[in-house]
User: Fold this.
Amino acid sequence: MRILAFESSCDETAAAVLERKDGKLTVLSNIVASQIAIHAKFGGVVPEIASRAHSEAISGITYEALETAKCTMDDIDAIAVTNNPGLIGALLVAVNFAKSLAYAYQKPLIPVNHIKGHIAANYICHPELKAPFIGFIASGGHTSIVRVEDPRTHVLIGGTRDDAMGESFDKVARVMGMPYPGGAALDKLAYEGKNPVKFPSAAVRDDTLDFSFSGIKTAVLNLINQEKQKGGELPRADIAAGFVEAAVSSVITKLGMTFDRNPDMKTLVLAGGVAANSHLRTALEKFTKKRGLKLYMPDLCYCGDNAAMIGAAAFFEYDAGNFADVSLNAYAYSV
Assistant:
């Protein structure tokens, strides 16, 4: 069985073809048209520009995905698309394209939740992964702790009350003069810090499993502004090291509480764009080893937004008979 999947929830236009044979998932193609160069001049994603770029790219990457997979639409058994959550204009591009394609070729249409897609990237990299488990998803738009009962049932038990973890990384990097997206550069610079600056924790100080990254982000921006006003040399590496340390330790704090309250859970699954952060990956390896937990992390190529992860999640939706018709809509929030 083969699924053609689409993803356009933010600033990556993606199409992929996945095959399932004897229970094994194989990625036949995974094409991503990045908009980084387009949005870099603005220091962040501009929704309207992102939507227009998706419209320009989606047809071409579809042909490329099919060609790379060495198949035609006749070889495709179903079409999947991200329809929530994300930037509404961006989502609508792939949703409408997928609907049109499904209607024209009379293929089943499968709606997929973007967050479930990120988690599903791990099923590609780790075929042995089985639910239930605790999932931590961190990206430019999302920071969530979920209890995954099965591949289709995700229960949100914690999350950010304001800024997402990835968003705070990019904004801090931008103020420090790094090009968009700055998360990777900030991750690298943090290793050069010899005297990390102390910043407040992003772990909300109550009995919830929530985060607040706006406070730590503001603390960093205030320090940078103060140093600039003094006219002194900005300790960029120390600031980066302190910020990354505070952000990552916040995650460890809340995950510790999570597993304390869910003693039946023995597995942690990492997902999302920030899953590529080396400091976070190292900290989670230490955390899970200390607690005797299993840890699953996606390969770096599946951390950012891509269509392969949407296709992986779509197989579970297909098995459950979760199909949509041409009335399928897009939603900025999770549904």
User: Anything to note?
Assistant: The longest strand covers residues 24-34.
